[in-house]
Design a protein that fits this description.
With 155 residues, the chain is mostly helical. The chain has 5 helices and no strands. Helix 2 packs across helix 3. The radius of gyration is 16 Å and the shape is globular.
Length: 155
């Protein structure tokens, strides 16, 4: 059933984005502590790339339930993990934080997100009968937005 599939997709996205946001919050928190001048540009770049993340969470839930409240609630849950994860992660991992720690955390989370896109999002688009060209165009647009946010993080 399409509704169940979209709801499942939305909740999997909440999980993946939430797991992605925790180490992202940790990286932002520690980078800002290390170099306070990085705080604002980092926050702006992350805010830009959180927009498509929020859309990825909200859209399937909204279309599955028809409820803006549920879509906003689950988007909030996936997003609030970032500051909470940053602080809790720092408290738990401050003695072992280093390049290897970040590399392992980000690699695992990236693998999860790529799996969800390939295994869930693209098949769902196909099952909903969405034009392939639109899916490809929107995927490319999403990659461009992510590139822009990464570019802005490096300013």
């Amino acid at each position: 059933d399409k509704v169940d599939g979209l709801n499942r997709l939305g909740l999997l996205t909440v999980l993946a984005i939430g797991l992605h946001n925790a180490p992202e919050g940790l990286a932002t928190f520690t980078a800002t502590l290390e170099e306070p001048a990085l705080g604002l540009p980092l926050a702006i770049g992350i805010a830009l790339h959180n927009i498509p993340e929020g859309i990825c969470v909200a859209m399937p839930i909204y279309y599955a339930t028809g409820s803006r409240t549920k879509a906003i609630f689950w988007t909030f849950i996936s997003g609030i993990v970032e500051p909470i994860g940053g602080i809790l992660g720092y408290l738990a991992l401050s003695s072992v934080i280093g390049d290897l720690t970040y590399a392992v955390i980000f690699a695992v989370v990236a693998g999860m997100m790529i799996h969800i896109v390939i295994h869930e999002y693209l098949p769902t688009c196909h099952n909903l009968g969405i034009n392939k060209n639109i899916v490809i165009l929107c995927s490319m647009l999403g990659m461009a937005i992510m590139w822009l946010s990464i570019f802005l993080l490096n300013i």
